[in-house]
Fold:
Amino acid sequence: MTSTEKKYHKKEIATEQLKTAIKLFLNEKDLSSVIILASAAGSILSQLARNAEEEPFIDYACRIHNHIKKITPGREKYNHFINIKLGITSHKHMSDSDPETVELDLLRCALDGLTIAVSDFVTLYGQEEPFIKAFLHWTWHNTNGKKLIEEFKDIPKNLIQKKKKNDKRNL
Structure:
């Protein structure tokens, strides 16, 4: 292997991180790495969505929180809360006062972290990539997709993400 500097678009980096995370997940390997890779990809994809004037998952989550609690949390504060809930913070950080052990449901954290990153990927680029299709297929069959569709029908219209006129996503 030869070391050569090359320019990469952040989409390429996030796509490779997400592709690797999904491959590990679907093969039931190294869920801790899935969590970190999905988080890294998600951070990039979230900003790319904002740059493209699309609504990233975190902004949508803030809207949902506002609908339920009647208060909109700050994006960074809510993102920090989600990172704690998904075990991302405990995977990346440790201070001298933190315990050396942590209790997590790695499968749940990995699935939720992937779902966030995949959501932003689909918002930006659609769902036609084979690795995205594989994850969506797995999710449909393993999380009771039919029930989720029925529940989706009851969501207020103002909470459903709108497609832009020039949207090429296949939703």
Q: What stands out?
A: The chain is about 65% helix and 0% strand. Residues 31-51 form the longest helix (21 residues). The chain has a mean pLDDT of 90.
